[in-house]
Structures are given as C-alpha cells and as structure tokens.
Amino acid sequence: MLFAISILAMLLPFSAALLKAAKYDHSYEELAIQQFFVHLRDELIQAHDVKIAAHAIYFTAYLNGQEERTSIELYQDLARRRVSSRGHEIFLRNIDNLFFRKTESGLQVIVKSAGGKQYEKLMVLYP
Q1: Strand spans (E) along the chain
Q2: Which of 10, 20, 44, 102 stands 20 to 30 A from 62 (CA)?
Q3: pTM of model > 0.85
C-alpha cells in the first residue's frame, strides 16, 4: 500500500505536465455560427414580413405595439443586427462572406468564415 502511494506521488507532477501539453480542439467558431443561426431563426419567427437581399435580410415585426424594422447584414468582416437603423449588435466576427438566398421551401443562409470554412443552413419561412 505504501509502495502504491509513493509511485502515485512520483507520477502526479508528470500527469499535470501531460495535461498541459495536450492540445484541446475548441470549436468557438462553430458554436458562434450555430448561435447566429438560432438568433436568425428567432427573428424569422417574430417577423410578419421578410425581404431577402444577397448580403442582408430585412424583417418587419410588431414589438410592444410598434412596428420595428430589423436587418441582419454583412458589414466589413461582421454579421450585425440593426433595429430601425439605430446602432448595431454584432452577431459574428471574422467572416469573409454572408449570403442569403430564397429557396422554394424558405431561406438558405451561407456563412464563410475568415478561416475558409463554409457553414450552411436551410430555414423554413412560415406564411
């Protein structure tokens, strides 16, 4: 028993060094883009009118009894949301391109990251 504890005590400092040396593959970019798709879906659900352009999408919704015009658009290397052309909220950073295209069943969204990866999502537009 004492022998096992002494072996464990000698190996413990090496295990900490091994854990530090291990590379962890993070997916912050994928997580951010998935969250962007969730925000976009929420905007689509709230909107009563949707207009689609190549690099922007425009929503009209009634919030708190007032009509609000919202857009999600490509701005430099950002995907941003603007409400009634006042200020902006950044949804994504470091993207090369953002495409919106109307399809038979709804909306196709393509995000190309600065790292060269391309993400695509098909969303249903409800009447």
Answers
A1: 49-52, 56-63, 66-75, 78-83, 86-92, 95-102, 106-113, 118-124
A2: 102
A3: no
